Hints:
The chain is of the alpha+beta class. The chain is about 25% helix and about 30% strand. The protein folds into 2 domains: about 10-105 and about 115-150, Peptide deformylase (Peptide Deformylase); about 160-195, no CATH class. The strands form 2 sheets. Strands 1-2-3-6-7 form a 5-stranded antiparallel sheet. A 4-stranded antiparallel sheet has the order 4-5-8-9. A hairpin with a 7-residue loop joins strand 4 and strand 5. The chain is globular. The relative contact order is 0.14. Zinc ion (ZN) binds next to helix 3. Zinc ion binds near residues 103 and 144.
Amino acid sequence: MAVKKILTIDKYEKQLRTKTEPVKKITKELKQLFQDIKDTIEANPAVGLAAPQIGVMKRIFGVRLGYKDDQPENEDMQPPIILINPEILEEAPEVERGWDACLSIPGMMGYTERNLKIRVRYMDEDGKTQEREFEGFDARAVQHEIDHLNGVLFTDRLANLGDLYVYVKDAKGKRKPVPYPEAVRRAAEATDGAVPVIPALPSSKK
Ligand code: ZN
């Protein structure tokens, strides 16, 4: 059992934006990695986690299927499954607008459009080739994780900054998502109309 440290964009953006390498063979070390991914998903808890988020640049991710927005506790969620070298074979033309969030982008969420239904070929953790159809939120989660393997983050899929939300504490200390532009405006107002102090950027040498 090993819960791994999550790489976040503030320090590891370059790595999170790097394309990962396919897996050739299931080794003992990889089996340990599969367990680490599952442990890290359950400990956070999260819907999914891709290997590059814990610093392993391979085409592997874990996902828990069956997430439902109306079950905040998500007690009915299935245990994580591992998908290796996933390949989208087909995607239905219908897209759905829904929410996206990521352990590597803490304190934020956003609304993105993703395909409602996809068919994926992948290798399971025993090295067997599988084909499976994912729909609704499952399809959304699988697309989010496949994006990670290609160095793509959900923020790349926002139509505009108004679709990005920042969690801000309200007067009662409860965390609420506030659109990013509004959070910036509020932060500016909190300085009593004074011009917010913007730190000078270090001079760049190119
Ligand atoms: Zn993510």
